[in-house]
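Deliverable D4.2, example record:
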Amino acid sequence: MDNRKVCKFSKFFLPAVVLSVAVIVCGVVSIFVRGINFGLDFKPGMVEEIKVADTVLELSYNGSATINFNADNDSVQLVVSGIGADNRTVDIPFDSAAKVSDVASVLTSQDIDGLVVSVKKDVEFDTLFVNSADSSALGTSALRVFASDKSSSVSADDVRNALKEFNDVSVKELGDASDRSFQIRMGLSGDASGKTIQAETSAALERTFGADKVAVVKSDFMSPQFSSSLISGSIFLVLATLVLIFIYATIRFHWDFALASVIAIIHDSLVMVSFISFSQMEFSTTTLAAILTIIGYSINATVVILDRVRSDIKVVEADSFVDVLNSALTATLGRSIITTVTTLFSVLSLFFFTTGTIHDFSLALIVGLISGCYSSIFISSAFIALVRRNYRFEKPAKINVESTAHVSQFKLDK
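Output generated by the structure prediction step:
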């Protein structure tokens, strides 16, 4: 005999639904009025990786041949081609050259008329690189070659300060001290083109660090069409997830249980989007990952409750389906609270001890975790209670006492 006290969660179904509807309606209004602060992942813009380092070598050429200079992580190559030229490729592995002067000596020893090699800073190096914005074909204008500086004190904050005149700028530090680079993400505004933004960015960086110390490693541009397709693809991803969850829950339980779980997930997603609009938090791929994480967390919590409801239907003596829901929710309440609280401990650590995108990710998770626990208990259960308000329990058939007595008397007479 189960003597535990059953909490009357059903008393709060209607107030919970009213509260959720109010929050979501306010969120929808906020989306239309204030909009969503889309991050650079969902806006047309530029993604550029730069390095701040010293120019150690300059190359120029004044001749009839075509000479291309290339640098990768392991070596540099000088490719000579053209009609009447001595076609060849000079490859200089970094492990065979201890200093910049060693590279210069190999290049000058090739006896290429018109090639000028000038050492600007003779240092030991791990890797050499060039500005990807410059042409690899040598000409009369000097091509700068850079070397990574292990002693460089330039930080991501320094790069941000150099670009403070621009809006929608995000800077992230990549690599370690021996090969540090910075990823710059910048949104396009107005009629500005990607080439214009790149030129203005390079000019601002060169004013701060020096014209001979900024090298662009690589640049990518995101067009408005691509950013729009990324938004539509993200919406499709969430909708496809909901459909698959509905199919799974229908197979495991019943269509109304499945629909209740999907409603709870949609509720959590809308609450998170409403919060993002209220707070004007940047909506990025990290935020989208937080929403998908909460979808998985919420369906897990809801399935545990629905599984207990399904088992309690067979064993709990109840006059209405609401009684079964109250019994199942009471039995799983401890599990729901403990799971949410322990997860919140980890997320709160991220929230208080991190910055940037991880900080926003943890904040979105905090809202989603609270909403997920709340919707699993109240929103999905409220929907099931509404659908099964006329549910009839199968009662055991009554025993015919007279027939039983007749059979027993017959056995005694025999």
